[in-house]
Recover the amino acids of this structure.
């Protein structure tokens, strides 16, 4: 009598490790169903907090625990305990891999990658160009490897989608030897979101990704634009770091590089002070004191001129990138808004598109004002270029990429 082999594992745990937090989701890739979601925040503080929500049938609902969680290892052990309480533990044979968001993969990593010691060492070598993000990502990977050393750990890189940019878009016009010696070039970020949204936009248009050209506007507290031609990124607004490009919640986006020299010479500011200014005290919060678009719009409605100016600067930069990427692509099938502001702020979408009718862009005001969790077109039928709202899902994209990689490996 022969016995059939056990079914292949289909679950992916997605981890997004920040400097003091861990976001996580457990998904079953048979149907992309979420089995559990959660967040550990304020790691290393006395007020640490874990919020866990099981989504399987019969789940007990949201659970919360507070109290000191010393480090990421303790945080992941706490996550494992919560998952185990729902019958979803890390020791489950149904778990195929753990997928990790890694912000910076440089030029080497253009695809999801199973992490070994060599890969981890290369991610560490990239810390100087991603000092705020890669160290936390590394900590999450190391901790997960210690908890499940037998399980594939898959790194999915924010920069990977942008590695298809041509050198004409990726290079800065500085001395080549200096740039190469210090890895100075445009890498781009939010790539997992841009990949997911551009593909979902093609689906919304009823076409294959290779048949459409899309401008993706990922507008959250961090914001970036990309020009995607036939499913491949050909330009993006963020550069060596996530500071370049659009006006963001607390980041300046594009500034004359000489601003930094001026602040050093005239204001006597240190490098660290200038870094803090441009990354944490600029953008919308620097312009008007708020980085929440809902609050800015409320203030505008009350006649606040400073809030209006901040909004106008934000929109002006956004329009410049739409126009620039239209020129880069030559033909545009859709302009798509995503992330917190892009998905929810109808006034931002209306202002960004206003006046671009000669480019084939228009909005249906009724459709634009409707609230919906689903991907949708908000332009009128006659518009030559579709304007769409497509909710991003970076966790699902990471799970898809991780599962595809380990499934391929299991067939070798």
């Amino acid at each position: 009598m022969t016995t059939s082999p056990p079914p292949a594992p289909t679950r992916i745990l997605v981890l997004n490790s920040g400097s003091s937090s861990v976001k996580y989701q457990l998904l079953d890739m048979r149907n992309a169903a979420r089995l559990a979601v959660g967040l550990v925040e304020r790691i290393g503080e006395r007020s640490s907090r874990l919020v866990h929500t099981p989504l399987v049938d019969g789940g007990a609902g949201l659970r919360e625990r507070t109290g000191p969680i010393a480090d990421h290892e303790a945080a992941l052990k706490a996550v494992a305990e919560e998952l185990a309480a729902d019958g979803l533990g890390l020791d489950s044979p149904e778990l195929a891999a753990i997928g990790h968001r890694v912000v910076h993969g440089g030029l080497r990593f253009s695809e999801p990658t199973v992490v070994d010691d060599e890969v981890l060492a290369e991610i560490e070598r990239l810390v100087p160009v991603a000092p705020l993000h890669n160290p936390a990502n590394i900590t999450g990977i190391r901790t997960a490897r210690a908890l499940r050393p037998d399980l594939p750990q898959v790194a999915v890189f924010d920069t990977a989608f942008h590695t298809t940019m041509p050198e004409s878009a990726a290079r800065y016009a500085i001395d080549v030897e200096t740039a190469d010696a210090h890895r100075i070039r445009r890498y781009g970020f939010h790539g997992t979101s841009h990949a997911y949204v551009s593909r979902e936009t093609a689906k919304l248009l009823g076409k294959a990704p290779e048949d459409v050209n899309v401008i993706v506007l990922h507008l959250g507290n961090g914001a970036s634009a990309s020009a995607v031609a036939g499913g491949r990124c050909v330009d993006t607004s963020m550069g060596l770091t996530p500071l370049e490009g659009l006006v963001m919640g607390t980041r300046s986006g594009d500034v004359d590089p000489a601003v930094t020299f001026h602040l050093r010479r005239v204001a006597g500011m240190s490098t660290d002070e200038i870094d803090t200014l441009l990354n944490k005290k600029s953008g919308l919060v620097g312009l008007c004191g708020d980085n929440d678009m809902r609050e800015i719009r409320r203030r505008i409605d009350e006649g606040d001129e400073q809030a209006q100016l901040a909004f106008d600067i934000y929109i002006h930069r956004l329009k410049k990138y739409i126009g620039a990427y239209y020129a880069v692509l030559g033909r545009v099938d859709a302009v798509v808004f995503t992330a917190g502001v892009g998905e929810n702020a109808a006034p931002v979408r209306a202002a960004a598109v206003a006046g671009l009718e000669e480019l084939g862009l228009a909005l249906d005001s009724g459709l634009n004002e409707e609230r919906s969790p689903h991907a949708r077109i908000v332009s009128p039928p006659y518009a030559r270029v579709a304007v769409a709202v497509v909710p991003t899902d970076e966790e699902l994209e990471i799970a898809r990429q991780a599962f595809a990689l380990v499934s391929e490996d299991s067939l070798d």
Observations:
- The mean pLDDT is 93.
- The chain has 15 helices and 14 strands.
- Residues 305-329 form the longest helix (25 residues).
- Residues 56 and 314 are 41 Å apart (CA to CA).
